[in-house]
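Sequence only, no structure available. Ideas?
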Amino acid sequence: MKNLRFVVLFLFISLLIIKQSYADTIDLNTAIDKTIENSWSIKNSVLETQIARDKLETAKDVYMPFFTSAIQHTYSETGATVISQVPSTETKQDEWNNSISKMFENGFSGSIGVNLTKTDTSVPSLGNLDDNRENLIFSLSYPLMKNRSGRSLKNPIEIAEFNENISRLQYEHLIEGQILSTIISFYQVCLLLEDKKTVMANLEGAESVVKTMKHKYEIGTSEEKDYLRSQASVSAQNTRLIAVNNLLAKSKINLLRVMGEKDISRDFDISYNLTTSLTPIENKREVVLESYPQRKDIKQLQHQIEISKKNITIEEDKNTPNLDISTSYATDGLGGNNTFAESETPGWLIGLTFKKTFGGKSRISESIKQKEKLENILEDFKDTIEEEVLLAIEDVNFLLKSLNEAEKLKNIQTKRLSEEEKDFNLGRTSVRDIEEARNDLTSAQLVLAQAKINVIRAYAKLLFVNGELNENFHMRLR
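Reply:
I predicted one. Tokens follow.
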């Protein structure tokens, strides 16, 4: 039993350690996912998209069948008149109208309903006279002029559809911006980690030199100034390490803030890979042309232009004559009881309605100018996008070339330091020479790390201005 408890306790502690380790290690995917999950801006954008979708459904309700019901009660009393010998009467009437109506996309509208009327009339000389009617009523209406296709009803729906698409595009564009911010912050942490690794490696080498110089000084084969110089080198590396750790802590705080984490004071490890298989981009014009249909802000402007066209149509409709034809049919009763008057005979009723609104040309002109303004903005924006994409391509190509040179420089400085260390151990070179070689290697390593990260950042920006940046960014680097 004791062994079983020990095993259970061991497994429980192991799971806690694994969970803690997982929670304290962040890779690029985790950072991006957390940013999207926690961003208040994105949450608000989701709500805006849902609101736009609800407005679209509300606009579509015009084509949904709708039911109406109305009840009316009236009472009248007439006093007796001696001259005309008309006796006093009391009349009570209850009327109940129920109907179902439907509007169709081709402009037709129709309804079917039932009218129930109950009339109680009390005449002293004649007694109670009741008149109960139950009529079934059909009606149809169709526009002969204007809106023959029902566009006056379609326009608000289509505008709502465009607004929903605009909200969705704004949401997607916002996500792209948040991803770019996360990538920049994430790789800033990576850069400082690379810096820290380099400083710690140099510190280890400098401490090794101190031990050697101390031994040589103690046996009298080296001067004290060389021993002090080696100690100064260690102190300089420690000072740089303190500065790097300070910048690293700040960059981690910034990354957690971008990710929307509540506890931005916690420490964590970073899992990253700076290896890429990117190559220079040759087909620049093709990349520019591909960017236009992919940019979310371009699509937003295009939808806004379509909305302005619909607004022009709406204003034109208000100024266009409208002629409707309508017809209705009522039955002669559905078995009601009539003791006061004869039943009404069934019949058709046909009518024409003509409407014309005067004025409003200024509103049409305003809508047209608004559309032209948006079209001009779109063309100007395309030129701006072309410049952004071309500049981003130039940055990527330039930084890839710089990366190649940085790798060459790092290899050269690594080999140089190795040779200097051999000569130092043989007593053929000084502390100054090996210190200089180590500093040059440190600079080369930092330049290489900076070059790798700059390439990744520049490529992320290229995808952003090209409208292709998404959560799978790390896959594009391979």
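The chain has two domains: 26-57+156-307+365-476, 65-103+108-146+322-355.
Hope that gets you unstuck.
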